[in-house]
Amino acid sequence: LVSVLSSAIIVYRLPWTWKCSKLLMKFIHAGLNTIAMILAIVSMVAVFEFHNARNIPNMYSLHSWIGLTAVIFYSLQLFLGFAVFLLPFAPVPFRAALMPIHVYSGLAIFATVIATALMGITEKLIFSLKNPAYSTSPPEAMFVNFLGLLLVVFGALILWMASRSHWKRPPEENAKVLRPIGGTPEGTEAESTMTDGSNADKSDLRINSEAARKQNLKLDEAGQRSTM
């Protein structure tokens, strides 16, 4: 989850991917999240089978509680992401309303995964290091402690990239062609030939064009800022 989920989060934020089509990036984003979900399920099955084979109680530590919570919410995040942002059935207003929640929940799940990993490696050290003890700072403890620091730095870097506006994928060129529904693009010959129209008609055309601009930008934003 730490490595694959982080890749899914920043896949829209890498400048060398901005030349790829939005649909292709959607499939890459969804595919990475699907791979992360499959690996998370496999790992959880392995943990439960290991505990049962060694007669170790299940779900007793804070690490296990938070980890299971993260996986459950991640599965919901993945399902809603597929249903709302990948399939072409959800209306644009609903996508636009759900996008901030989708982005925030994705980043919150990633931060929870980092916290779960930190608790897990600490728990493993405490249980495994008996002679020498963890409190005496043997090389194994120092190695894992530095690994934990690297996880914190890595998570902070991913969250920084996902929250900076200058890392945001720019709108596609076709989003700049603004055309009202059933009409023509703004500033084309259809508007220039309206020599007999009144000033009120021209004002209405500009209002319709402005509404179409906002609708197109909202659709483009709802389709691009996905971080499942």
Automatic annotation (TrEMBL):
Q: List every stretch annotated Disordered.
A: 173-228
Query: Single GO cellular component annotation?
Result: apical plasma membrane
Quote the InterPro entries the UniProt record gives.
CYB561/CYBRD1-like, Cyt_b561/ferric_Rdtase_TM
| Requisite cofactors | heme b
Identify its membrane topology class: Multi-pass membrane protein
Q: Which GO terms describe its molecular function?
A: metal ion binding; transmembrane ascorbate ferrireductase activity
Give the enzyme's main class according to its UniProt record, as a single word. translocase
Q: Does the keyword Metal-binding apply?
A: yes
> What does the record give as EC number?
7.2.1.3
Which compartments does it reside in? Apical cell membrane
Every copy of the Cytochrome b561 domain together lies at 1-163
Q: Which reaction does it catalyse?
A: Fe(3+)(out) + L-ascorbate(in) = monodehydro-L-ascorbate radical(in) + Fe(2+)(out) + H(+); monodehydro-L-ascorbate radical(out) + L-ascorbate(in) = monodehydro-L-ascorbate radical(in) + L-ascorbate(out); Cu(2+)(out) + L-ascorbate(in) = Cu(+)(out) + monodehydro-L-ascorbate radical(in) + H(+)
Tell me, what's a Pfam family for it?
Cytochrom_B561
- Signal peptide residues are none
| Transmembrane annotation, as ranges | 23-45, 65-89, 101-121, 141-162
Classification via PROSITE patterns: CYTOCHROME_B561 (PS50939)
Q: Which domain of life is it from?
A: Eukaryota
**Which ranges are annotated Basic and acidic residues under compositional bias?**
199-228
**Predominant localisation class:** membrane
Task: Keywords in alphabetical order, please.
Answer: Cell membrane, Electron transport, Heme, Iron, Membrane, Metal-binding, Oxidoreductase, Translocase, Transmembrane, Transmembrane helix, Transport
Q: How does it assemble?
A: Homodimer.
Query: What's the protein name?
Result: Plasma membrane ascorbate-dependent reductase CYBRD1
- Which species is listed as the source? Chionis minor
